[in-house]
Amino acid sequence: MTEVSFPQPDRRRPEPLWFQVEEAIRAIIKSGEWATGDQIPAEDRLCALFGVSRITLRHALRNLEETGLLRREHGRGTFVRSTTLVAGTRELTSFTQEMGNIGVVAGSRLLDCSLTKADAAAAAALEIEEGDPVVRIRRLRLGNNEPIGIQTAQLAGARVPGFLDSGLLQGSLYEALERRYGIVAMEARESYRVGTVPAADADLLGLAVGTPAFIVERVSIDERGPFEFTISVMRGDRYEIRSTLRAGRVPPNTRS
């Protein structure tokens, strides 16, 4: 691990100390000073380096762990983890935005873009007739140049006339759809299941055929209804699902 500078949080700033520490660690990781697999200093050492309490430091580390930048191994310490997209309760964002939120450079390689006919699954998701035209976009998704998953999106053809000739596949698809067609995603429904990597995707993902993977289906909706149906095959070692569960009812206080 290279020698790292630790900026001291400024108590005169309006941002909480834990937020300043979190941003400082995020910047260290993004700069490459702490590389994937590196073990970061122990909590007491970090407290001394940043000049903050253990409570403040733990708040920052917990946030970084939840967003997938760090992993904590009981009995060993905390490590910089490989590029990982963590799915859970979050805002409706594009892949590009999600990766940016965890300090990872999003990348994409276009594998196919064509006009085809909706099969039964796409027709049901997009609320169109089977056989209606859809624009099929198949992309390899990258984070810091490492493969994370393969996404196959289908757009209702009637909503995106001229898409194949528009050159809209550079950067965020959602931003392009808003700019060209006024489509703004308001809601998305996602379902997750465990599957395996098919032969067509194995080499691109750097995995053996049949390796466990997450299969994610997403239907994106704007004010006019569904416009996008996406099926993603995500690497299980670089994609996580986390949820926070809460009691539905708080037991009454039975003390007299």
Automatic annotation (TrEMBL):
- Pfam families, per the entry: GntR, UTRA
Keyword presence, Flavoprotein: no
Could you list the residue ranges forming a coiled coil in this record?
Answer: none
**What keywords appear on the UniProt entry?**
DNA-binding, Transcription, Transcription regulation
Q: Which InterPro entries match?
A: Bact_HTH_transcr_reg, Chorismate_lyase_/UTRA_dom_sf, Tscrpt_reg_HTH_GntR, UTRA, WH-like_DNA-bd_sf, WH_DNA-bd_sf
**HTH gntR-type domain boundaries:** 15-83
Q: SMART domains from the entry?
A: HTH_GNTR, UTRA
This protein's name: GntR family transcriptional regulator
UniProt organism field: Mesorhizobium retamae
**Lineage start:** Bacteria, Pseudomonadati, Pseudomonadota, Alphaproteobacteria, Hyphomicrobiales
